[in-house]
Amino acid sequence: MKKSPSPPAENDKPDHEHGMFERFLHSQVAGSAVLAGFAVLALVWANSPWADQYFALAKIELGFSLGSQTYTHSLGHWIKDGLMALFFFVVGLEIKRELVVGELSSIRRATLPISAALGGALLPALIYVFFNMGAAGSAGWGIPMATDIAFALGLLALFGSRVPIGLKVFLTALAIADDLLAVLVIAFFYTAEISLLALASGFIFLALIFVANRLGIRQVSVYLVLALGTWVSLEASGVHATIAGVLVALLVPVRALIGPQEFFNRARSNLARLEQSELTRESINSNEAQRTAVNEIYLAAEDITPPGIALEKQLHTIQAFLILPLFALFAAGVRFDTETLGDFPGAVALGIIMGLFFGKQIGILLASWIAVKSGAAALPAGVSWSQLWAASSLAGIGFTMSIFIGELAFSDPELISEAKIGIILASLAAGIWGAFLLNRSLPDADNS
């Protein structure tokens, strides 16, 4: 039986905040659709008569020369270690925003999503270990810990206004806390031998970014050079280079650089100068004072806009419609042949499927129940336990981050292929099951 709609809660967010959040979710719908399309393209291409060309494409060597040194990597490596660093930069911006000004910014607000994320990470990992302890695939325990925020929020957004805003905020905060856990797992457990000299170099570049921020340096080129230096240093250190994206993002301010009163004072004084100077479209070409006043207004507007929020918005389109689709194209392709499917499902696939599908929803729901019943947290306004169960099921969609961790965990192509098939099947099952539960637990469209 479908539940009747809940009355609006007093602490619901203001309309303008709802609008921003709705736009974010709708962009996730479009991004997840493109991501799914490229994943399907990869699977079809990898099982077509042109499969050899597909697998050869990722092995094309690309690079550059600097003096007597030549640096080359495969196209697949540039995408998975290069472009994905930008993906992790956006992830880092999201994490910092939530920690500083979002749902993870206070203990009371953060308790439920963090508890849920921990439960949804630990139980799947334990289930995976149960199936793979001592086996060849034992290193893949981090694979079922991850949630794909694009697919999970994209599916949730398809239900439109039927979904209470509290459920959307919960799943977003959960997914971002989940991303933070995944980043920590990659940094501490899926790294090669560490070069302390290269690592120290990376932290020097990070320190220079911090100093440049403090000095108020605005030139984007300065930060690009320092960020590139951080990436190259971490790439050489043995720590996975995508962690550079997160570390750089954590140094980007997510609060306005000036207060409202300073903004108003600067804007008003320069507007007054312009009004008194008989500004026209032609006069600004030759009047340096007018151009200076206009530029000061622009800088004031820039200083009142948190850099992290602005960057996140600007880069989201690149991440959603370029980086993730390219990653899916090069990472999701796996052959469905007798060699790959001969002993399927093996221990790796079973651990991933059971972990993502059952472990995620049970772990999240159980951890959330404990947090609420202990009094440490409360259910979001207007959200029922059945709706929370549905959102927990959607968190079992692991696709992007799970595949990424799988390729770090294994070097054996057969284990990688088995892991990818397990991830795809588990993510499909979690998405369908989560959508079914949402449809049953949410109010009818005409009552929402």
Structure description:
With 448 residues, the protein is mainly α. The protein has two domains: 15-191 and 240-255 and 306-447, Na+/H+ antiporter like domain (Na+/H+ antiporter like fold); 258-305. 70% of the residues lie in helices and 3% in strands. The protein has 18 helices and two strands. The chain has a two-stranded antiparallel sheet. A hairpin with a 2-residue loop joins strand 1 (61-66) and strand 2. Helix 3 runs parallel beside helix 9 and helix 10 runs antiparallel to helix 12 (288-304). The longest helix is centred in the first third of the chain and has 32 residues, at 15-46. It is globular, with a radius of gyration of 24 Å. The two termini are 15 Å apart. Residues 1-17 have low confidence and may be disordered.
Specify the oligomeric state.
single chain
CATH class of the largest domain: Mainly Alpha
Give the number of helices. 18
In CATH terms, the superfamily of the largest domain is Na+/H+ antiporter like domain
Number of domains: 2
CATH architecture of the largest domain: Up-down Bundle
What is the number of strand segments?
A: 2
Q: pLDDT under 50 segments (min length 5)?
A: 1-17
Q: Mean pLDDT across all residues, rounded?
A: 83
* CATH fold field value of the largest domain: Na+/H+ antiporter like fold
